[in-house]
Amino acid sequence: MNPNLRSVQVKPEATTTYRLIARNRYGEVIREAVVIVQNAPPAPVPVIREFVAEPPKVKRGDAVYLRWKVENATELILSPPGQKLDPATPGFEHRPTRTTEYVLIARNAEGKLAEKRLKVEVVSQAQIVSFTATPEEIKAGESVVLRWEILNAVRAEIDNGVGRVSAQQGEITLTPTQTTTYTLTALDSEGLPAQATVTVKVLPSEAPPPSDGQ
User: Is-above-0.70 flag for pTM?
Assistant: First the structure.
């Protein structure tokens, strides 16, 4: 070491004793210095305080805004789309094509993780404008007319033995023998369903009056 140096910078990784020896023709002088290295405190664990979708239900191709509140994170990973994000980012816009579960992972400097999940439902483009029964209450043996109007559907059907019906509008006359709930299901071009129900109450028929002489 150059004897003219007055200092030197060191970066010990553990507690270390440094010895300085100065020599001349008359002898030597030794001095020691101990540098104590303390372990750094562990980084605080990441915390996801909030992870929400606005709105929680969308039509196919519509945007959903994923919003979160995160603490003690140095990195965020959102899947889908599998993208790394700055923890200071307050949210992310995505356009799901089907019902999707999103996973948000928060990571701190030491690699510790926090995770939260949420589901965004992609609903049908099909829209059932109306589905009615006229009348909604009948006596046994009487008939009821079901009517419906649908938008943006490629297929429609009614349960309880009715089957496939017009995917736009229509009506059908039925004679149920007991109180029945009918469900109209309309499918859009992606096969996503929209549903509506109507209940027809069937009352027992009145007994005929007794005949004369009885």
Answer: no
